[in-house]
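The following record pairs a protein chain with its ligand, NAP.
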Amino acid sequence: MDQSYDVIIIGGGPAGLTAGLYCARARLRTLLLEKAFAGGQIVNAERVDNYPGFPEGITGFDLVMLMQQQATKYGLQMAFAEVTGIENKDKYQKVVSTTDGIYEAKALIIAGGAEHNHLDVPGEEELVGRGVSYCATCDGAFYRDLAVAIVGGGDSAVVEAISLTKFATKVYVVHRRDQLRASKIVQEQAFANKKIEFVWNTVVESIVGDAKVEKLKLKNVKTQAQSLLEVAAIFVSVGVHPYTKYLKDIMSLDEEGYIVTNEKLETDIAGVFAAGDIRTCSARQVVVAAGDGATAAIYAERYVAGL
Ligand code: NAP
């Protein structure tokens, strides 16, 4: 199989799929590489209410499936493999190493998104899948009629807390401050929900349980008081980090590991672009990721045309 392309896109979330749509419509021979399942983080969102064009909202899964359908209709090719490295041979040739072999392209768009942060407390790793979860939408239904906790104060944690109330008898939101980071409309919904109880100024010190989660050891950061909270599950929703370890020696990353780009979404390697949550200063919204994908594709097309 000829593994050489005009453009290779790394990552199949909204940024990558939109870049794929634009590149395919520009009649560039384009391959999108995705580790496992296209869609990115938003695939787990039960409802997306802030993507324009869907006044009744849409599930994250349906939204990305429509994006994929639209991009492949115009000729975007997709392959499933994990990218392990990229090499800039020269301005005409970038080499992408994957778990499924080597691919080459004239231009690359890196749209690998971000992955969940962990709490890194005792018990977390041992009890993953046995009460410790990073996705309330995926695992919430397992805890019907039980009390659960979610850690974090951002949009993800609060939206997921609301969705967990469909199953759980009680949802504790454990947050390290006394103010939420989540958007106001989401906060209002959570404060009005009687099943949600906020545990302010509190961190999880450890997760306790033998075969499954039984309780959380908590500490109030203001008073230093420790306490135990009995729950059947803990959902960890404390933000994300970019998967860019394989890029750190070849391009500029910011101190948190996000790829540094200019307004054209160019990285400091000519012909390599970055789009979506993986780039520095992204607003981390689906619509922004999609916009980034379009911008990166337009400048990638110009780059390829200029060679
Ligand atoms: P986020 O906005 O970065 O929030 C992470 C939360 O976790 C913060 O409240 C933070 O506390 C807390 N946190 C971080 N590290 C922690 C630790 N080690 N221990 C305890 N708590 C910790 O992340 P996110 O909620 O995943 O959202 C990511 C992006 O997606 C955001 O831009 C968000 O707006 C967007 N998003 C939007 C929607 C929507 O409906 N529009 C839905 C989901 C996500 P502090 O507040 O103290 O820093």
